[in-house]
Design goal:
Length: about 150
């Protein structure tokens, strides 16, 4: 399934994504992403895969649950994976500040550089172990206040 996001307000884009998943779609390619925020926020579901082409806005995949893979074929702004509980986020480019903030589980893979305060307040609990892998450099305070992960 393909969706064109160019010029679309983030609320409309998120509503369309939720409707597609509710209708049974499991793989969605989104073209023209340009700073729309909260994409995949709170999403969960077995075998759900979103491919976002462009620049994902703030709080990508925040509160995301199990079974979801989000791949950004571009960059992501601040807060990717904010308070993420499970799932996987792949950012092929650069990620902004506070990626993985307060993660409780799941995995974030950043191909390029990441901003400041990445992975702060990450917390592991029992079988929930958050993981962040960064292919480039980061700003200061990486992993500040971590309690596992």
């Amino acid at each position: 399934m393909r969706l064109e996001a160019h010029g679309m307000h983030y609320r409309e884009l998120n509503a369309r994504l939720r409707a597609l998943l509710a209708a049974g779609a499991r793989e969605v390619e989104v073209e023209g992403v340009n700073g729309q925020r909260y994409l995949a926020a709170g999403f969960r579901g077995d075998g759900v895969r979103l491919a976002l082409h462009g620049v994902a806005g703030n709080d990508l995949a925040c509160f995301m649950g199990p079974g979801v893979v989000v791949e950004v074929r571009g960059n992501a702004q601040d807060g990717a994976g904010n308070t993420m509980g499970a799932g996987k986020v792949i950012i092929r480019g650069r990620a902004g500040d506070i990626a993985g903030y307060a993660m409780r589980g799941g995995r974030i893979f950043i191909g390029g550089d990441a901003g400041y305060r990445v992975g702060i307040h990450m917390k592991a609990y029992e079988d929930q172990v958050p993981i962040i892998v960064i292919g480039g450099n980061t700003g200061s305070f990486l992993g500040e206040y971590m309690a596992g992960g």
